[in-house]
């Protein structure tokens, strides 16, 4: 028997996130995802009147291809995938990685070809112009990363991913307005003192339209304005390699020094930042505030939404909050500022916006965890809660 939560999640993705309409073409890419969920997505898309185009992929197979491919093969694959993506109105990408480090032994030069010929032209240049959403699929590997049993993690996952994002969307509007009225940002924390400007750059509230789970409001720093030092306290994974204790020093927007938890990781870190000129500049700054996510699990779609966190992103800027930075890299690095992670402050101009992970001004306190969670206490057992969720939500950041 299929888990009924699969159909509910598929409905969120097709009716809320991508808002599929009759006749629209949607590409569904399923990486190591059970057929039951792929089938649920097909059914939900057809129920919307859309035409689903489906491709199933397996990371162990992709690893072998990437290790064997030369640049011409990457270029050919990119041309094929670009041709297909140009004909889509929407994209749903679901990844169920059994091993998040599967690509860790793919040579760096091969990963740069992958970025240059596939991720950048297909997903950054074309897919971001469609209605798109990306998410992970829960499995034992994710549960292990989260330090939970598989059953407990699945309950957590579906609670987070099918929550009522309508309430969160309403609460985010005040933060959007405050960010768009600001000039200077100051971030203080352990081994961290960072200053930059966000003047004139839009702030984008995210309530389940592009990522599931969601819960962030992002903008970008003025490209040359970043100065200071930041020491990230959250592990991160990029191109299949796990990093921790990353420390970056900025001067006039550029990363002039970058270190990781070991000499070899520092070398790999700088190899990534040398991908192109834009990789050493920042393309995104974002507040995270999903009330159900309170600790890292080495999965950026969850970690960047941690309540009381922010992320700072070397690399490419999104088109809707564009500071002009272009790069094949887009690497969300997360700092948690709750007391158990060392605390910290974020100031906009002369106003303290958040201290130790909690929003301070009265007009932003609806975004604090207890206020965002209060409406969801009966989820998912209450059918009336689910009906109200659908009524509110369905009236309406790149990870690949």
Describe the structure in brief:
By secondary structure, the chain is α+β, with helices and mostly antiparallel strands. It has helices spanning 4-17, 35-47, 59-68, 71-85, 108-124, 140-146, 150-161, 165-180, 263-273, 300-303, 369-373, 383-393, and strands spanning 25-31, 51-57, 90-95, 131-136, 184-189, 192-197, 204-206, 216-219, 227-231, 236-238, 241-243, 247-251, 254-259, 282-288, 309-314, 333-336, 345-348, 351-355, 358-359.
Radius of gyration: 20 Å
- The average pLDDT is 90
Number of helices: 12
Q: Summarize the biggest pleated sheet.
A: 8 strands, antiparallel
Report how far the terminal alpha carbons are from each other: 31 Å
- The low-confidence runs, each spanning 5 or more residues with pLDDT under 50, are 376-400
Strand content: 15-25%
What is the number of independent domains?
A: 2
SSE class: alpha+beta
Overall geometry comes to globular
Portion of residues in helices?
A: 25-40%
Total number of strands:
19
Strand ordering within the main sheet: 13-12-9-6-5-17-18-19
What does this structure look like?
This protein is an alpha+beta fold and 400 residues long. The chain has 2 domains: 11-137, Thermophilic metalloprotease-like, CATH 3.40.1830.10; 165-374, no CATH class. 34% of the residues lie in helices and 24% in strands. The strands form 4 sheets. The chain has an 8-stranded antiparallel β-sheet with strand order 13-12-9-6-5-17-18-19. The chain has a 5-stranded antiparallel β-sheet with strand order 7-8-14-15-16, with helices on one face. The protein has a 4-stranded parallel β-sheet with strand order 2-1-3-4. Helix 1 (4-17) packs across helix 2, helix 4 (71-85) runs parallel beside helix 5 and helix 6 (140-146) crosses helix 7. The protein is globular. 46% of the residues are buried. The model is unreliable at 376-400 (pLDDT under 50).
């Amino acid at each position: 028997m299929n888990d009924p939560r699969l159909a509910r999640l598929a409905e969120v993705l097709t009716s809320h996130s991508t808002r599929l309409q009759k006749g629209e073409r949607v590409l569904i890419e399923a990486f190591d995802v059970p057929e039951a969920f792929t089938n649920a997505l097909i059914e939900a898309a057809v129920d919307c009147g859309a035409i689903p185009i489906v491709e199933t992929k397996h990371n162990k197979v992709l690893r072998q291809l990437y290790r064997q491919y030369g640049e011409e093969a990457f270029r050919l694959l990119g041309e094929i995938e670009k041709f297909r993506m140009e004909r889509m109105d929407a994209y749903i990408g679901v990844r169920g990685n059994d091993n998040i480090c599967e690509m860790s032994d793919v040579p760096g030069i091969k990963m740069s070809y992958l970025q240059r010929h596939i991720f950048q032209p297909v997903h950054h240049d074309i897919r971001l112009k469609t209605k798109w959403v990306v998410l992970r699929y829960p499995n034992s590997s994710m549960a292990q990363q989260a330090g939970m049993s598989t059953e407990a993690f699945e309950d957590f996952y579906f609670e987070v991913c099918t929550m009522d994002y309508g309430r969160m969307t309403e609460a985010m509007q005040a933060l959007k307005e405050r960010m768009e009225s600001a000039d200077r940002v100051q971030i203080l924390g352990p081994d961290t003192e960072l200053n930059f400007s966000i003047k004139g750059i839009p702030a984008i509230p995210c309530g389940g339209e592009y990522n599931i789970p969601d819960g962030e409001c992002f903008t970008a720093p003025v490209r040359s304005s970043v100065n200071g030092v930041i020491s990230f306290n959250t592990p991160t994974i990029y191109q299949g390699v796990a990093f921790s204790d990353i420390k970056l020093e900025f001067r006039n927007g550029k990363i002039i020094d970058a270190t990781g938890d070991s000499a070899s990781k520092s070398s790999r870190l700088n190899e990534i930042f040398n991908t192109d000129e834009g990789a050493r500049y920042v393309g995104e700054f974002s507040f995270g505030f999903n009330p159900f996510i309170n600790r890292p699990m080495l999965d950026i779609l969850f970690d960047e939404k941690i309540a009381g966190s922010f992320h700072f992103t070397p690399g490419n800027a999104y088109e809707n909050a564009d500071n002009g930075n272009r790069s094949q890299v887009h690497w969300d690095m997360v700092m948690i500022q709750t007391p158990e992670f060392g605390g910290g402050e974020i100031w906009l101009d002369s106003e303290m916006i958040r201290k130790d992970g909690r929003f301070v001004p009265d007009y932003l306190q609806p975004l604090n965890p207890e206020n965002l969670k209060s409406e969801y206490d009966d989820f998912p057992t209450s059918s009336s809660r689910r009906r109200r969720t659908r009524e509110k939500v369905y009236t309406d950041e790149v990870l690949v």
